[in-house]
Each structure stands twice: as structure tokens, then as C-alpha cells.
Amino acid sequence: MAALGRSSGGSAGIPLRAAWWALAGITLGEVVGSALAVVVVALTGARLTSAGPELVGELGLWSGMLAAVVLVSRRYGSGSLHQDFGLAFRRVDVAYGEADAAAGLAVAQAVGMVFAGSRLAGTNTQILSGQRGDLAGAVAVSLIAVVGAPVFEELFFRGLIRTALAARLGRHGAVWGQAVLFGLAHAGEANGLGNVSVVLALVLLGAVLGYTALLTRRLGAGVVAHSLFNLVAVAAIFLVR
User: Fold this and answer.
1) How far is residue 196's CA from residue 198's CA, in Å, rounded to a whole number?
2) CB neighbours of 215 closer than 8 A, spacing ≥ 6?
3) Per-residue pLDDT tens digits for 168-196
4) What is the model's pTM?
5) Which of 16, 105, 108, 173 could form a disulfide with 201 if both were Cys (CB 3.0 to 4.6 A apart)?
6) 8 Å CB contact between 69 and 157
């Protein structure tokens, strides 16, 4: 998942135009992932929202995101994800990640309380709740949420996007810029106006994770925090009755 040791936390040589490659990568990933999901549905007769199509869909999306990260690193940077985007992990990142996860959960809870009972309240955990009673499906979507998404999303948003935006927006502007894009990337995961609360909560979570990457100069703590944040949602769906 990550290299050990020191990291620059991002290359000053990554230009703003690298963000266009990021857009191309995530768009291609969405297209490939959707196509793969449709193929699985056609071959198996499964629902589009069941675990199999969701899993291959995410794999397609992640492949596009990873391709963009690698391409930008080789085209504009050193060719090392460790040097260019801070893909590194230290033992202390576990403690940092726990603190960040707590902060992210507090922010999400606060947003939920603000919008509670309104048409703007929503959730993006349908993919999890839809697998109740299906052990294989529950395991698959749990791995997506707790293992896959934290690695690929941190590398893409807090690594590539934040570094590219910093060339024009500066360090703090880049943190908030990637946070907004992170939140908007999850729009559509809730129903209708419920996306307002979901996107806002994820924008704020993205800011927490962005500042973590900025201050630690690596992605390890953010991956841990993102994983723990999602793990709480998994536990709430499958373990809490």
C-alpha cells in the first residue's frame, strides 16, 4: 500500500494542468467501471446494486484513478508516488489517523444534526445496507469501503489533486479545492436533496484529511483515518441492531 520512510509529501514540479489528467482518469474509470458492472449484471442476472457489480465497478473506477496518478507522476514528477504524492506510512500515522477519524466522525455527526428531519438530510450507506443478510456481499462491500476506497481516494484526491491545485491555489486553497471535489465526487450516492448533507459532510472530511496530508507530508495517516471512518459506518450497518 505505501512505502516506508521519509517523504516529500508532494512534488513542487506537478503543474495545475495535471488536474486535467486526473479528470480524464476518473472519467475513464467511471466509464470502465459502469461497463464492467453492466457486463456482470448481464452474465449473472444480479441486481446492479448487488455486491458483484459494485465490486467490479469500483475496480474499474480505481484503475482509472491509479492510471492518472501514475501517468502524472511519470510525465511531470519523479516517477515515484512516494516522492511526488507522499505515498508513505509511519507507525505514528496510526495515532494520527485515529485522531483524524474522530474529528471526521464529529464533523459528520454535526452536519447530520444540523440537517436532521429536513429534506436535505441523507446518507450514502445504501450500498452497505443493501447487503444485509448476504454474508459474501457484506464482506465484499466492507472491503471496498475499508480497504480499497481509503487507499485509492487518498492517493487520488489528497495526493494528485491537492498537489496539482497547489500550483495555482497555494497550500490552503489546494486543501479546500480537493475537499470540494472529493465531496462532489460522491454526489448522487444519496437520494435527491439528501445529497446536500452528504456532500457537505464529505467536503469537511476531505478538508480534515487534506490538512493531515499537508502537515504530515504523507498519505499514511489519511488512509488510516479514512479506513476507520468507513469502518464505523460498516459496523453501524452490520453489527448494530
Assistant:
1) 6
2) none
3) 999 999 999 999 999 999 987 777 888 89
4) 0.91
5) 108
6) no
3 state SS of 13: coil
Residue type, 57: G
Question: What's the number of domains the chain is made of?
Answer: 1
Instruction: Identify the residue whose cell numbers are 476506497.
Output: 149
Q: Are 4 and 90 contacting, i.e. CB atoms less than 8 angstroms apart?
A: yes
pLDDT at 1 over 50: no
Asked if residue 69 belongs to a domain, the reply is: yes
Q: In this predicted structure, what is the pLDDT of residue 127?
A: 82
What pLDDT score does 12 carry?
Answer: 56
Return the DSSP state at 4: E
On whether residue 2 sits in a domain, the answer given is: no
Structural domain span for residue 212? 8-238
Q: What is the DSSP string of 94-149?
A: HHHHHHHHHHHHHHHHHHHHHHTTSTT---S-HHHHTTTT-HHHHHHHHHIIIIIH
Determine how β-strand 88-89 pairs with β-strand 3-4.
parallel
